[in-house]
Every structure is written in structure tokens, then in C-alpha cells.
Design goal:
- The chain is of the alpha/beta class and 232 residues long.
- Helices cover 44% and strands 12% of the residues.
- 35% of the residues are buried.
- The model has no long low-confidence stretch (mean pLDDT 93).
């Protein structure tokens, strides 16, 4: 793959830039409450609330969106006034899960050789700082200030957020190269010119069936040989 300086690169976070889903790791991080700026009693309170919320979710007493929103609010209490230290500490952990084959792409982003953004359903509470840590100036994530009934940055909502962002930068007429792993991104896939797929074969088949005119390329590096992105 060679860099297209006229294109805009749009990358999902979980399962794409990262080989894992960061959200469960964030939940457990919050449950451990390793926040040195707050006292032990406060940390125990944060931990207890996080574990209670997790148990309620496991017992299906609350749905995922409500669970995520409540955790965002708890995180904001736990990290208030820390200048982003909590988010940076978590981001530093997640950087170890960046896919090695994407290193050339991320280097090109960090060096400003290509225009790119992250578009993710992950909470902005940590996704913004994680995006900066891997070289991105632009991150579209689930807002940390969203209302309780406001959905995550996913599906059609995510697609529209990307299109609004592109228009705000004057990039709306440029080619769009998408990196993703999930069929939830079907609306966004449908408005992109080139898709690099990091998901399952079944997901790829579903997308190919729904959008037969979209070219979907495997994003994975071959088991042997150089990264497919070495030319970026």
C-alpha cells in the first residue's frame, strides 16, 4: 500500500488500531481505581461503584449504553483535577496493543504526511488521549459530556459525525480510506472509497453482501513477509 496524499484516512480504534477492545480493559482499570491523586477511601468507593455497575451489567440489569454512560460519569469523578494523568496512564497501557502492521500508517499520521482521524465508539474520556498517544490530532469518540439518553458514536451516528468533520475541514470531496473491523460501521463503509478490513471473515461476507460494489481488502499482514503498509 502506498500513501495517497489526496485521501483522508479514517481509522477505527478497537479491533483495528488496537488488536483488542479497550473498553473491558477500561472497565477493569476503573474497578482497580489506581488513581494516586485521591485518597484510599475515595479509591475504594470508586472501585466499589465500578464493580457494582459491572455486576449489574453482567446480570443484565442494565443495558450497555446506560452502563457506559454511568462509567463515564464515574471516571470523571475519579479523574477530576488530574490534568489528564488518569487518561494518559490508561492510554500508555493500551499503546502496547497497537497492531505492529499499522506502524507505517501511524508514523505517516504522526509526521503529517497523510490527513487522518480516529472514529470510534470508545469513550472520549480516554480515547482522545489514546489517539494523541498514537499520533492523531483528530479523534471522534463517544462524547464525555453526552446526556444519559444520547447514544454512542456508532453506526449511522458515527458516519454522520465523520461526514460533518470532513466538511468542517474542507475535506468532503477527497477520497476516503477506511480501516475497520466491525460490521457496525456499515454506514461509514458505504461512503468510503477503499476499506481495509480487520474483522472476521463472516463480517466481511456480510458487508460484501450488503455493499457489493465496495472493495474490501484484508488489513492483516501476511504470516510471513513485510507489512502491507510498508510503502506508506
Amino acid at each position: 500500500m502506498h500513501a495517497d496524499s489526496q485521501a483522508v484516512y479514517i481509522l477505527d480504534l478497537d479491533g483495528t488500531i488496537l488488536s483488542i477492545n479497550s473498553f473491558p480493559h477500561w472497565v477493569l482499570y476503573l474497578a482497580r481505581a489506581p488513581f494516586p491523586r485521591i485518597g484510599i477511601a475515595h479509591r475504594l468507593w470508586i472501585s466499589g461503584l465500578a464493580l457494582t455497575m459491572l455486576l449489574q451489567r453482567k446480570l443484565r440489569l442494565t443495558e450497555h449504553e446506560r452502563f457506559k454512560w454511568r462509567l463515564q460519569k464515574l471516571w470523571q469523578v475519579a479523574t477530576a483535577g488530574d490534568g489528564g494523568a488518569g487518561a494518559q496512564a490508561f492510554a500508555d497501557r493500551m499503546v502496547g496493543y497497537v497492531r505492529p502492521e499499522l506502524s507505517p500508517v501511524l508514523a505517516a499520521v504522526a509526521e503529517g504526511r497523510i490527513d487522518a482521524l480516529i472514529a470510534t465508539a470508545a469513550p472520549a474520556d480516554y480515547a482522545d488521549r489514546l489517539g494523541l498517544s498514537v499520533g492523531f490530532a483528530h479523534v471522534l469518540a463517544t462524547s464525555s459530556a453526552r446526556a444519559a439518553n444520547e447514544p454512542s458514536n456508532v453506526g449511522e451516528r458515527k458516519c454522520q459525525a465523520v461526514l460533518r468533520f470532513l466538511a468542517s475541514r474542507g475535506w468532503q470531496h477527497r477520497r476516503r480510506i477506511l480501516f475497520t473491523d466491525h460490521e457496525d460501521d456499515l454506514p461509514l463503509i458505504g461512503v468510503c472509497d477503499d476499506v481495509h478490513w480487520f474483522g472476521s471473515n463472516e463480517g466481511r461476507r456480510l458487508i460484501a453482501h450488503a455493499l457489493p460494489n465496495v472493495v474490501i481488502r484484508s488489513g492483516f499482514a501476511k504470516e510471513a513477509g513485510p507489512s502491507p503498509y510498508a510503502g506508506v
